[in-house]
Amino acid sequence: MQVSTDFPGGGADNLRIDGDTVSFEAPAKGCPQPMWFAFRLLGAAGRRVTGRLTNGRACLGGGQLGVAQPVYRDGAGAWHRVMPQRCSYDAASGVLTFWFTPTSDETTVASIFPYQLADLDAFRRKLPADRARWRVLGESPHGRPIAMLEVGDPERRGEVVWVTARHHAGEVQGSYVIEGLVSRVLSAPWLLAGRTFCCLPIMDVDAVEEGSYGKDQAPIDFNRDWSESPHHPAVRMVQRELAASAASGTLTLFLDLHGPAPGDPSFFLPSRRWTCDDAYAQRCFALIDHVARDWDGLAQGDYPRQALRWAEDNAEMVSAAAVELAHGVPALTLEVAYHRDHLGRLQTPEGWRGIGRRLAEGYHRWRLSGEASGRVRALPELPRPAAWFCQSLPQQVAISDDGADLVLTSTAAPARARLQLREFQSGPRRLTWQSSGKATARLSLYRYGPAGYRLPGHETVPLAVHAGELRLDPGGRWRCAVLLEAAEAGATWRLRWEETT
Ligand SMILES: [Zn+2]
Can you give the pTM of this predicted structure? Predict the structure, then answer.
């Protein structure tokens, strides 16, 4: 038996063959937390092969790998999940063990159903070329096509919907969802009337083809790169296309498709304006309601609070947040479950295509309904002061407005709150503050460019203990955020934000 990773999407580190056992690691390939792997077994037909993923503890969501069921296919046949009773995960050692019996002398094994450039190529060749246009926007750094599928009006008049997938290469689900969406709108003229669907099924084509999970890659994560001057060409190209779409028609929706942690269900995450803008929240949740109407695999419980935790300095450079910022349209992330939905049902490529169909139909109902009020799954404990909004759930901090002042009090230690100004600023402003107790604070200053995206980078200023005043006039359009931390209960901050002359 031999093993190879020399094929598109192939990737595994420290491959070792010991009898009929193949040990390997999910390859890092420049990412702090890997998850994707794919390798090919040669000459293993008829053997009972055991796979051992040995770096589960280093993988993203490694604690949830107990739900993982890798996939395999014999020759060019269909992909199968390894049956659950043949998979076991030892969380203490981080070893995922699974076994199966290849029936071919060339069997491919992967963490989840692969979707490569060749799959996209095969899909688009089956589409009617006059109605589904294949547009190559440019080249990736390693010379691969960055391409989109466009269905509807070639001039993009009327409504324009944008859907992107694979900002994180290993999150294959999104490419299948786009297949389902494109097939559905092509099969139903009423879904396409007056509309154009612009879909980019593989954003990070290099990581997809080179067998990397792709998340948090250096120098910047693909989905934290939506600034005024992106590092990744694909982001730059989509920004340009979005601007052209908004100029020729009406941009109505931006949807970015992802995969959550391995054990998580499917859920929507509206761009974060929903936490401080009721009308916007209702539009986003109305869409979610319409999509959920015939998709019981969408988790509908409490809003996932872990989803708010990462929203800090680079939160506005996440695709959905950035597009909402630049174009003012409903922009949502859809996390599509890898292995099982919230009802415990196993996920399949066909099931993911079905999600695309439901998105197309849910979008149609949403538009017909006038985007009427959705049931907002707000977090009741998220404070909503007038001039500021919370960027993450405050930890042990009570927040209130007191006239012109924002007042925060720690209720236990350690305490932490992070708030950003709601409105964009231009011209001179003054921040004054008073604090008491063991408390520290710092201010982050963010600037915005002419295209409406954040300028990359930001400045951070510590705020002096107890009292101080800061005058800000950085020029252009800008906002700031404050991070407040306390090491004891009862510490307070009082912040006042004023225009000056
Ligand atoms: Zn992702």
Answer: 0.95
